[in-house]
Structures are given as structure tokens and as C-alpha cells.
Write a structure and sequence with these properties.
The protein is of the alpha+beta class. The chain has a domain of 69 residues. Helix content is 36%, strand content 16%. Strand 2 and strand 3 form a beta hairpin. This is Reverse transcriptase domain-containing protein. InterPro entries: DNA/RNA_pol_sf, Rev_trsase/Diguanyl_cyclase, RT_dom. Pfam families: RVT_1.
């Protein structure tokens, strides 16, 4: 785990555009975009963190960094959404409310 932690410590990046590169800036949250290891790390961590709230039947699905919650009613989806939000936010994740 120390090797992985070292990969993410003090990371800086810049954005390349047709007008040139931006000045570099720190990456404080999230996974490295384009890293072959990032999807594996994300899936492993998400599976472990959400193990207790995943339903046995496929009423929730993880796709890369997206979560699909399914229920027969809007209230059921909202209840699941709150369970997932509470679980993820207590572990330091931030749920994008603009996509919900």
C-alpha cells in the first residue's frame, strides 16, 4: 500500500490545449486519469466500502466511477441514494449531486 500511496503523494498536473499548457497545479482528490491502475484501485475500494449496502439482486451496479441504483419506486431509489451517500461520505468520498 505504501507504493500506491507514494504514487499519489504530491502529484501535480497541467492541462494541454491548442493554445498551450496551463501552469501545473496539485491533484488533491481523485485518481490519476489515464493510469492503468486507477480503474482497478477504484473498483477494489468501492467494492470493499459498499459491501454492506450492496443488494444481493442487481439493484445497484458500479460502472467505472458511476453508480446505478434501481428500485420500483422513486422513494426506494431516494432511500438507496441516501444510504450510498452516507456510506461514501463517511469514507471521504463526495457524491456528485449534479448527476443525481
Amino acid at each position: 500500500t505504501r507504493v500506491i500511496r507514494d504514487m499519489y503523494e504530491g502529484v501535480r498536473t497541467k492541462v494541454r490545449t491548442v493554445l498551450g499548457d496551463t501552469t501545473d497545479f496539485p491533484i488533491d482528490i481523485g485518481l490519476h486519469q489515464g493510469s492503468a491502475l486507477s480503474p482497478f484501485l477504484f473498483t477494489t475500494v468501492m467494492d470493499e466500502i459498499t459491501r454492506g449496502i450492496q443488494d444481493e439482486i442487481l439493484w445497484c451496479m458500479l460502472f467505472a466511477d458511476d453508480i446505478v441504483l434501481i428500485d420500483e419506486t422513486r422513494e426506494g431509489v431516494n432511500t438507496k441514494l441516501e444510504r450510498w451517500r452516507d456510506t461514501l461520505e463517511t469514507k471521504g468520498f463526495k457524491l456528485s449531486r449534479s448527476k443525481t
